[in-house]
TrEMBL record:
Pfam families: Anticodon_1, tRNA-synt_1. It catalyses: tRNA(Val) + L-valine + ATP = L-valyl-tRNA(Val) + AMP + diphosphate. GO terms for biological process: valyl-tRNA aminoacylation. Its main location: cytoplasm. Residues 1-92 are annotated as: Disordered. The lineage of its organism: Eukaryota, Rhodophyta, Stylonematophyceae, Stylonematales, Stylonemataceae. Residues 779-929 form the Methionyl/Valyl/Leucyl/Isoleucyl-tRNA synthetase anticodon-binding domain. This is Valine--tRNA ligase, mitochondrial. PROSITE patterns: AA_TRNA_LIGASE_I (PS00178).
Length: 1063
């Protein structure tokens, strides 16, 4: 029969429940438990009396033996907050009304109100009058790479914004006049495509159904909706931009600058009109810039879907066919991957030194399908006589190399395609066919004429439109071009001379490669959304006409009248229907935003800018264009330094695209979201059904449980931690969750510190100096750690090594302040020595005040929240906001390497003690005696100064520091070697039942041995590697290694306990 006071069938009782029990109820509990709970109540009451509410709550833990689950349940319950607790009642734009600190970190509450207050107070609005007084070193100016107004920002934008804002805040905290200017790009082709898709999906209309004016109005509606979405996202990220100077590349102000730039470049002879080859998208019916072309490599014959074609099309094949020499039995065999373009052939080129064809140079070939003779020409640039047959078809209107050859030889340029990709009237019997339908039909016709000579696989690279996935066609078009040769030369010279710096410098090679081999820039686009080209076809009554460039129609009319020698009133002007490449207006952004071409104060005070930060993928397409445009139009570099960040990919290394379902909105990480919401977002997107199915699968695979709420600070910190990677970042959102936990650690550490400081604490610098003079090793240690963090963070920021700034601040807060200093000062702040307590609190306050400022550029919201909670801060720091406070600096007077060495040694000893505790399975409540044996004077002296701290950190009843040969270590100790000079002895008498532990361990060892032998037997059967599936073999190997390791660990423990028995 069980004793009535046994613990069987007695439910766990918490401290809180025990305090509410009557004496009769308490009497029914086992006596041991009554005693334990009564003691815990006393501890909780004492802590509550000291005002440490958080510590009192942590007294509500389950009694020993009831497991961690009950303790964790109590902890979670203590940290629960209501929806009302998370609500912020601060009127918009006013300084946040501070509530009592929540028991745990909640980013929604912490990040509320601060952004609106910063903006209302105009903390980030740059003073141009002050800027005009400062030299360049006293200013920091940066424009945001304007995101496209095509929808929401993604994590790539979030990385860009975080890097830029971190750098900006750091400069502001150094007292510089700081301007971080925001803006949005109208993104011509990207935006037009999105709106066209939307019209097709929702109304089954094309832009041609609406007409130009009505369609442009639809795009403006899109801009108004999504431009606001983008600025909202940037605000949520905590960007310290000057919203009073926000710009849009299609605004009236910037449109004036665009027209002026075009006219000035034309007047300088740098813009001209010519019929040349462009990248043409038949689906969109427009020319594309090189950046809007994606490339896919194929290794041989490949069937692919192409827009506007029903059947899959064959690519990756060389088709060989013959041209007959006129009035001869000879033929030339040609090979091509684009058979349909033979309808535009005007010549065949051979090498002038090729003996096989020398006698044919100047002869003509018969085209089998069109009434055209093809001349055989000699060209040593186009032809490699060792490759293929040594004869090359020349199609000047559809191939860049052929075009150059045609210009060298003055060949006819025969275009075979319409804008929509149909064969035109030059194509004889194939006219009206889709281009790839014509490819098939031409092959059949060649075979019918006995001219087909076979087909072979051919690895090749296909250019695809990034918007439609249509195959890019080189097409001959009359367009406007920028002559880039001289301004490109000046741009490369700026980098070579060091006047313009690229960071990291590994991208200098890319810069030189592109600009040293630059081609003229086609700036015409056959779109409706964008800046209309300020060029007019002026026609006179006498029949003469001329393209005229002017700032507006009146300017163009006056120019045309002068050039044509007629009365302006007699002229008819028709503006070019085309718009300018988006990169043209974006290329003006660093100076157009400041009012150029007018000589405004902003232009004088803020241009040239200090830094451009952007992704390395647009180094040529945007950065180089800005440099070239600025040199051409202002004769100045637009910025001194370019910092290029890596591309953000998903955790699998894939590019983030909507069709893969791996594009994440920063707000989904900041506020958290579930899988259903992620899938609903995809449903509302512009994806076609096939893409949507693929995207849904990708989203379910990567985010089966959605994304937990992380907050902007954790997102920023997580992104910056990745920036060590120069080219690609494989972003795992779970890593951001880790930094959310870091925020929670900061919150709890500050909560502990503030509760101990109290509301009446006043920091006095002289008291901090007294603490230094008092020379407590732990105080000096943490001050030295802070000093090192200041030095390392400053150096990291100067060198754009933002990942090192994260590492330095993270290390200080987590591993040095939280894990070491806060633990060792608990007995001090709760102790009876008022001087020691005062010193510790001043050091603690100084660490908070400096550590928060150190971290602020990275985590602006949390640091502002905690900075504003520092008691009586205004009595020594007049900064109204942490964003305007001074960035902490390294000081020789705060360097204490000796104390740092002492504490590092103490931590090594503590680590060894903790390892011994684990090795001998000591309970958390066990308090062993520790004997530290030192072999040298330095270790002995350091140990003497830190022994009490070691005892606190290692939960030991005492730590005695002994010099080798000068003291006695009791028998029955566990031993651990710390280093060559120090070893730790832990007295285990009365703490460990050696016999019982050995019995248990030997049983475990037998079990592990049986498992090991079982796997060894299983894996040694004949033909194991041949007959057992690979995945099963891998699993067996992993399990065998696991159980072997476990068995070795247990055997090591058995050896330890047997040594104790031998005593």
């Amino acid at each position: 029969m069980a004793d009535q006071n046994s613990s069987a069938d007695v439910a766990p009782v918490t401290v809180e429940q025990f305090m509410q029990m009557s004496d009769e109820e308490k009497g029914k509990l086992p006596k041991a438990r009554q005693k334990k709970l009564a003691k815990m109540v006393e501890v909780a009451k004492k802590k509550a009396a000291k005002g440490n509410a958080g510590e009192a709550q942590r007294g509500d833990v389950a009694p020993k033996g009831e497991g961690k689950a009950a303790a964790n349940k109590q902890k979670k319950k203590a940290q629960q907050v209501s929806a009302e607790d998370l609500m912020d009642s601060t009127p918009k734009g006013e300084k946040k009304i501070m509530k009592k600190m929540l028991p745990a970190y909640h980013p929604k509450y912490v990040e509320s109100a601060w952004g609106e207050w910063w903006e209302a107070q105009q903390f980030f609005t740059a003073d141009v009058e002050e800027a005009l007084k400062r030299n360049d070193d006293q200013k920091f100016v940066m424009v945001i790479p304007p995101p496209n107004v095509t929808g929401s920002l993604h994590l790539g934008h979030a990385l860009m914004a975080t890097i830029e804002d971190t750098i900006t805040r750091w400069h502001r905290m150094h007292g510089r006049v700081t301007l971080y200017l925001p803006g949005v790009d109208h993104a011509g082709i990207a935006t037009q495509v999105v709106v066209e898709k939307k019209l097709a999906r929702e109304k089954n209309l094309t832009r041609h159904d609406l007409g130009r004016e009505a369609f442009v109005n639809e795009v403006w509606k899109w801009k108004d909706e999504y431009g606001a979405q983008i600025t909202m996202q940037l605000r949520k990220m905590g960007l310290s931009v000057d919203w009073t100077r926000e710009e849009f590349t299609f605004s009236k102000k910037l449109s004036i600058a665009v027209n002026e730039a075009f006219v000035r470049l034309y007047d300088k002879g740098l813009i001209y009109r010519d019929t040349r080859l462009v990248n043409w998208c038949c689906k969109l019916r427009t020319a594309l810039s090189d950046i809007e072309v994606d490339y896919v490599d194929i290794t041989g014959r490949t069937m692919m879907k192409v827009p506007n074609h029903d059947d899959e099309i064959e690519f990756g094949v060389l088709t060989h066919f013959a041209y007959k020499v006129e009035r001869s039995d000879e033929e030339l065999v040609i090979a091509t991957t684009r058979l349909e373009t033979m309808l535009g052939d005007v010549a065949v080129a051979v090498h002038p030194n090729d003996s096989r064809y020398k006698h044919l140079i100047g002869s003509e070939l018969v085209h089998p399908f069109v009434d055209r003779k093809l001349k055989i020409i000699a060209d040593d640039e186009l032809v490699d006589m060792e490759f293929g047959t040594g004869a090359v078809k020349v199609t000047p209107a559809h191939d860049p190399n052929d075009f150059a050859c045609g210009r060298r030889h003055n060949l006819e340029e025969v275009s075979i395609l319409t804008d929509e990709g149909l064969m035109n009237n030059s194509c004889g019997q194939f006219a009206g066919m889709k281009r790839y339908q014509a490819r098939v039909e031409v092959e059949k016709a060649l075979e019918a004429k006995a001219l087909l000579r076979g087909k072979t696989d051919n690895p090749m690279r296909l250019g695809l439109c990034s918007r439609t996935a249509d195959i890019i066609e080189p097409l001959l078009k009359p367009q406007w071009w920028v002559d880039c040769k001289e301004i490109a030369r000046r741009s490369t010279e700026a980098v070579r001379s060091g006047e313009l710096k690229l960071v990291p410098n590994i991208f200098e090679g890319t810069w030189f490669n592109w600009l040293d081999n630059i081609r003229d820039w086609c700036v015409s686009r056959q779109l409706w959304w964008g800046h209309r080209i300020p060029a007019y076809l002026a026609a006179a009554k006498n029949g003469s006409s001329e393209w005229i460039v002017g700032r507006d129609e009146d300017d163009a009319r006056n120019r045309a009248a002068e050039k044509l020698g007629v009365d302006g009133a007699e002229l008819t002007l028709e503006q070019d229907e085309d718009v300018l490449d988006t990169w043209f207006s974006s290329g003006l952004f660093p100076f157009s935003v400041f009012g150029w071409p007018e000589e405004t104060k902003d232009l004088q005070g803020f241009f040239p800018t200090t830094l451009l930060e952007t992704g390395h993928d647009i180094l040529f397409f945007w950065v180089a264009r800005m440099v070239m445009m600025s040199l051409a139009l202002t004769d100045k570099l637009p910025f001194k330094t370019v910092y290029l960040h890596a591309m953000v990919r998903d955790k699998h290394g894939r590019k983030m695209t909507k069709s893969l379902g791996n594009v994440i909105d920063p707000l989904e990480v900041i506020g958290g979201t579930n899988l259903d919401q992620l899938l609903q977002k995809l449903q509302k997107s512009n994806l076609d059904p096939r893409e949507l199915e693929k995207a849904n699968s990708g989203m379910k695979l990567d985010y089966p449980d959605g994304i937990p709420e992380c907050g902007a600070d954790a997102l920023r910190c997580g992104l910056l931690a990745y920036t060590q990677q120069a080219r690609d970042i494989n972003l795992d959102v779970q890593r951001v969750v880790g930094y959310r936990n870091f925020c929670n650690k900061l919150w709890n550490a500050s909560r502990f510190a503030l509760s101990n400081l109290g509301e009446d604490f006043v920091f006095k610098p002289e008291n901090l100096q007294k603490a230094v003079e008092h020379s407590d090793p732990m105080d000096l240690y943490i001050l030295d750690c802070l000093n090192i963090a200041c030095r390392d963070t400053e150096n990291a920021m100067k060198g754009f090594a933002l990942y090192n700034a994260v590492s330095a601040t993270y290390k200080f807060w987590l591993y040095e302040l939280c894990d070491v200093y806060l633990e060792v000062i608990k007995p001090v702040v709760n102790g009876e020595d008022p001087d020691a307590k005062n010193y510790a609190l001043h050091v603690l306050y100084h660490c908070l005040h400096s550590g928060l400022r150190l971290l602020h550029p990275i985590m602006p919201f949390l640091t502002e929240e905690l900075f504003q909670r520092l008691p009586n801060r205004e009595k020594h720091d007049d900064a109204i906001s942490i964003s305007l406070s001074a960035f902490p600096q390294y000081s020789e007077s705060m360097a204490f390497p000796g104390a740092h060495r002492q504490v590092d040694s103490a931590m090594e000893i503590t680590k060894s003690i903790r390892s011994l505790r684990a090795a001998y399975n000591l309970t958390p409540s066990a308090r062993p005696e520790i004997y530290v044996l030192c072999r040298d004077d330095q270790s002995f002296e350091d140990g003497q100064k830190t022994s009490i701290k070691i005892a606190t950190l290692s939960r030991s009843s005492k730590v005695e520091i002994l010099k080798l040969g000068s003291g006695n270590v009791p028998s029955g100790c566990g031993v651990a070697v710390v280093n060559e000079n120090t070893e730790v002895h832990m007295a285990l008498a009365g703490l460990v039942d050696v016999e019982a532990e050995l019995t248990k361990l030997r049983g475990n060892a037998r079990e592990k041995k049986i498992l090991v032998e079982g796997y060894q037997k299983k894996m040694s059967v004949p033909d194991y590697e041949k007959n057992v599936p690979k995945n099963v073999q891998e699993k067996n190997t992993a399990n065998l290694a696991k159980y072997k390791q476990e068995m070795e660990t247990i055997e090591d423990l058995i050896d330890r306990f047997e040594l104790l028995l031998k005593g």
